[in-house]
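ok so I'm stuck.
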Amino acid sequence: MDNAEHRDAVMKELKKTLAHDRTKVSVSDFSALGLVEMTRKRTRESLAHILCEPCPSCSGKGQIKTARTVCYEIMRELAREARQFNPREFRILASQMVVDLFLEEESQHLAALGDAIGKTVALQVESGYAQEQYDIILM
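replied:
not stuck anymore, here's the structure
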């Protein structure tokens, strides 16, 4: 943008729009390359903090996915697999925590997914599996 009036109009509109943002925002003017630098204060927890929990094996130095995150991951993969293949049923092999969550809190979502794909979805606890591990068996 070579015209200074155009740059000023863009900056004015950007600042007017950002005035509605509840979070602190800092905007610098156009650079020599024609870019505007903007910083915005983070107000929520990081995505990794929401989707993961401290690893029990290494005393929290690493992170593993929560059982709920793994459940949603499995449901997305089931929907993808159902579009690609046509098995009689799907069998999910997962840790006890993941299977328990499916049976307790996510049973309606799993049943709705089974109805949507028109296949039976069976759950099986695999004792040697870590919380993040799972397999989907096509039968």
